[in-house]
Amino acid sequence: MSFVEFLIQKKNVLFTSACLIVAYTIIWRLRKALPASVSMIMMLFSLDLAFSLDNTLGLPPFDFYNTNIIPSFNGPDALTLLLYPAFGFLFTYFYYRFRISGVAITGYILLWAVLGVCFEALNVQFDVFQYKGWRLTYSFYIYLLVQTLMVLMYNFIRETFVRAKSTTNMRSKSQWHAGSKRY
Amino acid sequence: MDHILLVTGFFILIVTFFATEKSLHLLELIFGWLLVVILHDAYFTLVSLNLKMVVPSMRLSDFFVRIFAHKFITPTIVVWAVDLMNSSRLARHKWSWYLFFTALLILLNMMLRRLDILKDASIWEPWVTFSKAPLLIAAAWLAMLAYRRVLGKDGALHEFR
């Protein structure tokens, strides 16, 4: 097998690997922008949604698509799954960085849904996904739903985190004034 | 009828879980919940898709019950187990909760099989069912301990309990 044939045969793995390197390099540079506990939940939530949808839509009785050619869970599938937390992080980071609020949330969700569809179309070209009755338009609706859930989750987590942090600070101050040696 | 009883049991379990006071922080509970769903999804994908040991039922009603059990009931049981283990001071109380919730998970799994929502293939080994439950609770407990340290470092936890 020539080198070119090898590249063509493994194009899905190479494409996913390249995306992973780019995504996690960006995340590494931005990792301190958000509290680690919040980032971890958002990344897990993103992975959860993707894995759950893959396990429902990609398996019988629906079985709408295959991931990475072979219809079983393998190394390339694991690589593909690692991309979802990265997108979850970036989605949350830009939402936080640009202080998206009000009507801008709708635009932000729409923009990410379009970006998601474009990226998925690239994935289809590189054989990461093989559709069996699935369409990109369905993906667009799924992205709208998923990203709305991401926004709701982030707002809830942020509120909980801020409340927890302010409670901790208040307790610290009161104990400090009371002369506690716990801190 | 059996399905209705099972789903009623699911709802009672979930409502009781949300109605009782928890010793863990809300963020810890959410983290634990999400983690259990991922671990369980990975396990189910491996045993059903790769090893072909379990055949999920093709009926749509069975499908919804299975999804409900996997995404809501299993995480509820595991997170509840970790919460009660965390709040127990004595080691024997921790072990009692661990064993109780392990038994509950195994019971849930057996009920899904009894109702043919999951069907065992001929190559199915019963020890796989019995080993999943204790491993899932132990893995969630360890991960939630690690997450507690992260919360502490972020200044969102008053103290390490």
UniProtKB/TrEMBL annotation, chain A:
Keywords: Membrane, Transmembrane, Transmembrane helix. The chain crosses the membrane at residues 12-30, 78-96, 108-126, 138-157. This is Uncharacterized protein. It comes from Paenibacillus montanisoli.
TrEMBL record, chain B:
The chain crosses the membrane at residues 29-51, 63-83, 95-112, 133-151. Keywords: Membrane, Transmembrane, Transmembrane helix. It comes from the Bacteria. This is Uncharacterized protein.
